[in-house]
Task: structure prediction
Amino acid sequence: MTEPAAPHPITSTLRRPSANGSAPPPQSAPRPRPRRRLQTRISGIRTGLIAGVAALIVVMIFIIQNARAANISFLGAHLRLSLAVALLFAAIAGALIMAAAGTARITQLRRIMRRDRHKSQAG
Result:
């Protein structure tokens, strides 16, 4: 005689319907664990320092390669400087002018935002 076959386990991910024929609501996927923040303040400082040292090395190479003297006349001042130093001064002056313009624009936008915020709260 043959033995009755053992019931096969259900391998599907679907749930069995209930006795009244309705299926329970599907389970939502498990939530992924929030990722830990890998960047810290110290790692940001370290990255900034490494970038700064690399930039200084590039600037030193630039100065060494452009060591010949140049005559500079600006607003009545007559200077004899290294060409590299004169170019660095020009770049720094341009960066300061750009920073001043950017600071003025940021200040202007903050004032506008503050004024709009006070208007919306009052009205």
